[in-house]
Write a structure and sequence with these properties.
The protein has 339 residues and is an alpha/beta fold. It has 14 helices and 12 strands. Helix 2 links the parallel strand 1 and strand 2. The radius of gyration is 23 Å and the shape is globular.
Length: 339
């Protein structure tokens, strides 16, 4: 009798799964799914999204048409606001935004009117494991010990586009946690102007992604990478770039840095409206995860020199929840950097 009952349950489960699969395929068949990109065409977020648009549809039941829609403005807040409150929440819209908003939404919610918990996280293409700081030139800083030993009257001079820029946060965190004598000059138009200033000797180095450092500088021993901000040491990262976490001596400093670099851990985020039905969200997440493993997508990402270090939607939501638990005094300490 037990065997018969078990067989009946198995048959009913298979029938239910078949019906659910048919409904999912019916929902997406003939539809168009929009990927909203919170930046202008041609940038890394746009290139990643366009590569994704060519593969993710093959992993969604019903194989819907996928289109990319650029929605730049207000540092990605225009796109994020659209996804959060305007876009139809039926599983046909999801998108990406600049991850600096994530930390800012926790520290300065009055300026960044976005609650990361009010979004349905689809997944993250690549956690950013590549951020480093480096000294430049034959007499440039080559280690954290050398950096900390600099005299206040002759500090390590960096440039930045403004407060909130990633290299500004990197430099300020080293100054705050390790009392490193770092001076940051504001107002550079962009990274190319900073690189020219480094070559002229006006700046002592910089912090940034490994791919942003000219390869000739690394191969020619001109750029000395001395610290990295992710525990994982990716391919091409020299051993001289020690993990900042190994240098931290107390739990509060660790929480402080974890908060500042939360955006790096969610480096290429994709979200959908919070009210997206659970069934459609599950399909989008499954398709997203499959796309990050798709050889075709991987090949396109390699062409544009973008790494794939995926984070699932469920993992991303858990990380956002953890950010909400950080002590008020840590939040206040980090808030000073942004102000």
């Amino acid at each position: 009798m037990g065997v018969v009952r078990s067989s009946i349950c198995t048959i009913m489960f298979l029938l239910a799964a078949s019906v659910m699969g048919a409904r999912a395929e019916d929902f997406y068949r003939g539809k168009t799914v929009s990927i909203i990109v919170g930046s202008t065409p041609g940038g890394s977020f746009d290139l990643i999204s366009r590569a994704m648009s060519r593969y993710i549809g093959q992993h969604i039941p019903g194989k819907p048409n996928i289109v990319v829609q650029n929605m730049p403005g207000a540092g990605s807040m225009t796109a994020l606001g659209y996804i959060d409150s305007i876009a139809v929440a039926d599983g046909t819209v999801f998108g990406t935004f600049l991850p600096g908003i994530i930390t800012q939404s926790i520290l300065t919610p009055e300026k960044i009117r976005a609650n990361m918990s009010n979004l349905a996280w689809v997944g993250v293409v690549s956690a950013d494991f590549s951020r480093v700081c480096y000294g430049y030139g034959p007499y440039g800083v080559t280690s954290m010990q050398e950096l900390i030993a600099l005299k206040p009257e002759r500090p390590f001079i960096m440039g930045t586009t403004g407060t909130g820029a990633s290299n500004y946060i990197n430099g300020m965190s080293l100054r705050e946690v390790f009392s490193a004598p770092i001076k940051i000059i504001m107002g550079f138009p962009g990274s190319s102007e900073m690189r020219l200033a480094i070559e002229r000797g006006e700046l002592d180095g910089d912090c940034g992604g490994l791919a942003s450092i000219p390869r000739s500088w690394i191969d020619g021993n001109k750029a000395h990478l001395f610290v990295r901000f992710a525990e994982r040491r990716i391919a091409g990262m020299p051993e001289s770039a020690v993990y900042i976490g190994d240098l931290i001596k107390n739990a509060e400093d660790r929480q402080y840095l974890d908060l500042l670099y939360a955006g790096d851990k969610l480096g290429r985020p994709y979200v959908a409206p919070k009210k997206t039905p659970a069934a459609q969200l599950a399909l989008l997440r499954a398709a997203f995860n499959a796309t990050t493993k798709d050889p075709g997508f991987a090949a396109e990402m390699e062409k544009v020199q973008e790494a794939i270090y995926p984070v699932t939607g469920e993992e991303a939501e858990a990380m956002i929840a953890d950010m909400k638990k950080i002590k008020p005094e840590i939040l206040e300490r980090a808030r000073k950097i942004y102000n």
